[in-house]
Amino acid sequence: MKQTRSWARRCAVQSLYQQALSGGGPATTDLEFLAGEDSRRVNQQYFKALIEDLRRHAREIDRLIAPALDRGLDEVDPVEGAILRVGVCELAYHPGIPCRVVINEAVELAKLFGAEQGHKYVNSVLDKLARQLRKTEMKTGS
To answer: How many other C-beta atoms can be found within 10 angstroms of the C-beta atom of residue 55?
Structure first.
C-alpha cells in the first residue's frame, strides 16, 4: 500500500485536535496516530517532520493565522483550527509542496472532519494566507 502525505496530514490534524481537547498538552504520543491498520498508509517521515515543525513554530503559525480570521483563533472550531495550523505550517515551512495542494488537502480534511460549511472557511483563510506567504507562486499560478 502506498504511503502518503495525505494520511500524514490527517494524522497531524488528529494529533493537534486531541491536544486541543486535552487543554494544550499532548494527550498521547504522536506515534498513537501511526498505529493501527492505517499506519501503512502514512508517510511516517513526513508526519514526524510536520509534527516537529508544528511544535517548533506553533506561536509563529498562530501569529500568521490570526490576521486572516474574522474572529479570535480561540473561537475557531478546534477541528478547523487544527486543519488551519497544518495548512499554514505547510505554506510557511514546506515550500516544496505547491500551495494549491496544501489548500486542497486542507479543504478535503475539513469536509471529512469539520463542520458542515467548515471547508469553505478553511479554503478562504488558507487562500488569503497563501497570497501572503507564497506571493510568487500564487501570481504565476504554479
So the answer is: 14
